[in-house]
Amino acid sequence: MRHIMGTEVAADIEAPTAAQVNGGDSIIFRKPTRPVTLKFEDVVYKIKPSKKEGLSLLMKTRKQKAEAEKTILNGVTGAVFPGEILAMLGPSGSGKTTLLTALGGRLGDGGRHQLTGKITYNGKPFSNAMKRNTGFVPQHEIMYPELTVTETLVFSALLRLPRSLTKSEKVAQAEAVIAQLGLSKCKNSLVGGSWMRGVSGGERKRVSIGQEMLINPSLLLLDEPTSGLDSTTAQRIVSTMWELSQDGGRTVVMTIHQPSSRLFYMFDKVLLLCEGSPLYFGRGSEVMNYFSSIGFSPSVAMNPSDFLLDLANGVPGDDSRENQAAIKEILVSAFKTNLLETLEDELRETKTGDEISSNSAGYEKRYKGWSITWWEQFTVLLNRGLKQRKSDSFSGLKIGQILVVALLTGALWWKSVDLQDQIGLLFFCSSFWGFFPLFQAIFTFPAEKKMLKKERSSGMYRLSSFFMARTAGDLPMELVLPTVFMLITYWMAGLKPTPSHFFSTLLVILLCVLVCQSLGLAIGAIVMDQKSATTLGSVIMLSFLLAGGYYVRHVPKFIGWIKYVSIGQYTYKLLLETQFKPEETYLCPSAAAGGGGMVCLVKDHPSIERAELGKHVTFSVVALIIMLVGYRLIAYVALMRVGRTK
């Protein structure tokens, strides 16, 4: 069967993924730096109840508590060698993706999650070197829809390929992968997504695979690579994987739901899972004979994968009416009796390449460090972020929104001479430029969560370089928009018409914007959910607004502490300082009403008195700077948990 399928595969991939491009050597089909033998023994993964669920368990028996603990994987054992494809089959919820994630070193262990068993790569545990030599393709492609195919692969190449290669060599390698994966015709098309038109599903899947093939991985893991694709495209994808394993000498592991019979016989090994327990592990060509030997065979000729899924669901191939749970129990017991002991003996006897090799230290040294320097990571991530967000940052809608608000504000306060009106304008500016940047920034990290988790799990870059690049990329529009707003509003409203007063007012607004943006980043990084972050941000900013010193003059002591953490309170005070001096006077309201000439000191105005004009200016500036640094530090620390594996 094997040689027949080899002919079929070669014919199937000849056009889209030829091993030679323009007469040159293959990039994606070349041998990996170091072949990997993957072994996993008695892998168990359990999830304990959450704290909320745990409270209801306090009154339950030990047996009931044990039942509440969810077992996702239950004693899974197997091995995959270089040049082999392992296909993991099973119904939805059987634990396929969880096992694949564990094999890729991306499954958290700790807290509610408990992973036990032994997973080795050439006889060694997962390491940073192995992380950077492993390709992981998720079921749902995680890419920026705003980038083109070429940009997506070039940026991946610049981040992941070693510093020994020049930039032009990295770009050339990305272009070679594009050609070898049959993506040349769409290389300048946007990747697209659910809300943006782009390349087709099959092309998007090949782009995702191409990102991993750039690093020439020894181990390639794919989660449902054929999901949602037509049969021809699915055949092309699996054919590419077959070529990568056979000619490239890679270890390939994939989950697949219901492959056609033509695809099924491409798999060297098959693992069948049922509710986390293995029902079969062995050669794909022998699976039907095995189940037939234990009394399970289809009554009619059918696709082997359909038959295996029926068994995993407790549905026998014949007309038997046995209970589904009983059938599953029989199959699990048969695996332990007929296959497990032989499999364990095979794992113990097999010598891996690393166990008999003497140059593993050099391999670890090569892949342990970062591919490129911190500064190179920063510049690549900054350029990628600017390209990805250029349509959003410089959107006409956002610019138009600011222009409309600025013109409307200037018109409402047109050439205002009344002190109360001017104070109201300053408070409005402090409030508007508190809310606007916060709600722009609050979505930043929740929107980046999947990408950050994927790329950090692959060891692509330092968190610090990502954080600095992401925040630096947002600065231009964060500073340009309030500057445009103040250029329009300040002069229309008739505030003090001197350059020194204008620029001091502008600097206060810009500082407020940066602090509120920092708070938004911190909230988003902590919550990592857009809806929850919006709610929390609204509550916090409304609290700051009410404690800002404009609405309430006498705040009760038990809640008066809010003013010391209120961004609005410090911004409002500094804006008053830029426009007024304590010794300045204004026409008293009573005198104005009676036509008299009595004047009052500005510092005694009810809306200014609590701000203590002329005092604590330095303290207010320092407080805002501390908040600016503190909130960004909180955001950074909160992001450290994203993409972290143990």
Automatic annotation (TrEMBL):
Main location: membrane
Membrane topology: Multi-pass membrane protein
Keywords for the protein's UniProt record, in alphabetical order: ATP-binding, Membrane, Nucleotide-binding, Transmembrane, Transmembrane helix, Transport
Signal peptide: none
Chain segments annotated as transmembrane: 394-413, 425-446, 467-493, 505-527, 534-552, 617-639
InterPro entries linked to this entry: AAA+_ATPase, ABC2_TM, ABC_transporter-like_ATP-bd, ABC_transporter-like_CS, ABCG_dom, ABCG_transporters, P-loop_NTPase
GO cellular component, one term: plasma membrane
Domain annotation ABC transporter: ranges: 38-300
Gene3D superfamilies associated with the record: P-loop containing nucleotide triphosphate hydrolases
Listed GO MF terms: ABC-type transporter activity; ATP binding; ATP hydrolysis activity
Localization per record: Membrane; Plastid
Pfam families linked to this entry: ABC2_membrane, ABC2_membrane_7, ABC_tran
Family: Belongs to the ABC transporter superfamily. ABCG family. Eye pigment precursor importer (TC 3.A.1.204) subfamily.
Protein name per its UniProtKB record: ABC transporter domain-containing protein
The species this protein was found in: Cuscuta epithymum
Source species taxonomy: Eukaryota, Viridiplantae, Streptophyta, Embryophyta, Tracheophyta
